[in-house]
Design a protein that fits this description.
about 70 residues, 3 strands, alpha+beta, single chain
């Protein structure tokens, strides 16, 4: 089981938190074998997307997480 992850959540007031879309309790995770892989992905996810409009930035919040054991 991959131990090092990134947790995605939405900030308060985000329109995607509406009940008919993702809802208030939405979260997602991506898991990695090593902390180094996770840290590289964490940095990349915070950047502007190459295919987005100039100035667009992701609206999700990221947090580093680890599974115990």
């Amino acid at each position: 089981m991959k131990r090092f992850g990134i947790r995605f959540t939405l900030p308060p007031g985000d329109p995607m938190r509406s009940p008919h879309l993702l809802g208030d309790d939405w979260e997602a995770h991506r898991w990695y074998e090593t902390a180094e892989e996770r840290d590289v992905a964490f940095t990349e996810l915070g950047h502007e997307h190459p295919y987005s409009r100039r100035g667009d930035v992701p609206n999700y919040r990221l947090a580093k997480v680890e599974r115990q054991g």
